């Protein structure tokens, strides 16, 4: 029986494992990636072994990189050779190198990674693995292209436009070219989209984009930055004039009607421009152009961004925030300007005027904060506050005097209040809470409140008259006056605007206008009040022409609550020609 081989004693020393590079090709072939063993000594670098995948990667690559790896190792020159030398000298644990092999559509992308292997004397070794990232890079590029493209028009989108601005800014900083950003906003698009449908709206956007492209010069870039908003980076060869000419070309391109289905639609656009400055943030530049678009919508022509206008806009936003806080904390006040009977000189009423003294800014003019309130919608809260405060003040004066005083308080109503608020409920609530009768209040409305919505204005006027209040038309003659409104609406008083009154002593036309308004009021059975009386001559002339009452600095400026009551007492049975400046 043949002897069995002896089993090795567990205590016997194992045979030393062969070094990794001894069976390099065998071990490398087991790796699922392209790999090679690279040796490096004083003579240079060389490929000691590689697997089949590595050979295939070299075979499909250009001679400049992968295919030239062996040559690079021998010569020590080239991108990969330089990377190898630096890594061997640095003794870093691992190292990655991303590189492109070739150019154009045939370019391939690789990641080369080096990991150390045990050294043999002075010869250092490394495992070099190569991963073909071509499919990954191409997928990333395709995804990025989709992210930067507007799917409807095929133009670059908002994100891509930011990159276009940044690229232009680098040219500006280098001094090679000047640039400007134009923002083009298609007007009335929402109405077209709502009336004709989204498909017609999309068709219009595509056609609009094509016309924009036709209006551009070589070197200009176009993007769709919003729903109906487009951005353009314009190269300036002759400064600002190039940007303005670009805006005019765009407007001319839009002159021809757009044909949608069987309809021809005229489309207008608002254009804002901002000149690029060295070191300017791209987002800030785009916002500047957008701000100019808002001004262009108001003016009807292309507008260039002006820092002063933007500063005023920021102040308006700041005032809006502060005004909201002031209303919440009851930090505003009402002052009262006397309304004088021009024949007797007695006080017939007071016009309540909002005043605001800010703790840091000081006194803020109503001409500044009232428009902000109207634009932001705060006018509704401000109007209700003014109505309640005026009614409470008048009731307080009655209580102080111990009797019903023979005058009224006039409160201004904004056109936005008339359009959005329940005016009759607001006035009725103020009357009920104070116990005043309706004839103690006069509501002053401007002509714009009638023109915006005549039917609603009629309902509001009728409801106010049902409360027995007096209705006055303020600033008569400065808006869109219509004799039909005067005849149809229950208006009691016409207030002659100060622009006509102040010019009476030097302008015969102003005298003629005032005389005509007085005659019209008399024919319609209305009373009249003149604003802006600042001299004895004006007061005397208006009284002679038949104007019933007036107000202005000749009589008194707007007064605080206590001062107003004292002024009424001081004017009892005084002639009209004696005014007082306070």
Automatic annotation (TrEMBL):
Residues covered by the EAL domain: 316-572
Pfam families attached to this UniProt entry: EAL (PF00563), GGDEF (PF00990)
Domain of life: Bacteria
InterPro entries: Biofilm_reg_signaling, EAL_dom, EAL_sf, GGDEF_dom, Nucleotide_cyclase, Rev_trsase/Diguanyl_cyclase
Record domain GGDEF: where: 177-309
Cross-referenced CDD domains: EAL, GGDEF
The protein, known as: Diguanylate cyclase/phosphodiesterase
Organism, as annotated: Sphingomonas astaxanthinifaciens DSM 22298
